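User: Quick sanity check before I run a bigger batch. Here is a single chain. Can you write out its predicted 3D structure?
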Amino acid sequence: MSAVRPTKNVVVFDYGFGNVRSAERALARVGANVEITRDYDKAMDADGLLVPGVGAFSACMQGLKEARGDWIIGRRLSGGRPVMGICVGMQILFERGIEHGVETEGLDEWPGTVGPLKAPIVPHMGWNTVEAPADSQAFKGLDADARFYFVHSYAARDWSLEITNPLIRAPKVTWATHGERFVAAVENRALWATQFHPEKSGDAGAQLLTNWIETL
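Assistant: Done. Predicted structure follows.
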């Protein structure tokens, strides 16, 4: 008889710049106990913290700081507590973002700049495939032609983080292409992030969220 897995508690961090309700529904669908809040203690104590994001990089960073989200994310990661960023919630994890010539400091969890996506049609809106590493945990159980839903005009086009310590696992980086190649997802120990919206990506997105819940 198999053991019953305990339900995981996930906080969707509500700082005013994310599709919190759709994220809540998607996480509940895969069996998580979900709460939408910006409460410090609840965000710190949850098994997993999900940080969505829509709109401008600079506005998201301002809203996040006003809600102490930058501090919460940093404290959770320093203790190896899982965090997942979605869309602009992923972009703000990089060193900086540039929109309309304005440069804004990000959370600097990863080096690099988020900038305008160079493509014939922008925003990149709709379904697209990704190129995931063979040993990806996020995309476990998904076919190579699985499609995910994107809505964005900016992206990280380069990955420059180098791991020289052989005892530290290198991040797993997933790519996608729309006009040019860009970072579509990252798995970096306790920190996961996706440029696409798993909560809007049907069964493929549900499988990815299930994979994340299993790590909590």
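The CA atoms of residues 26 and 199 lie 5 Å apart.

User: Great, the batch can go ahead then.
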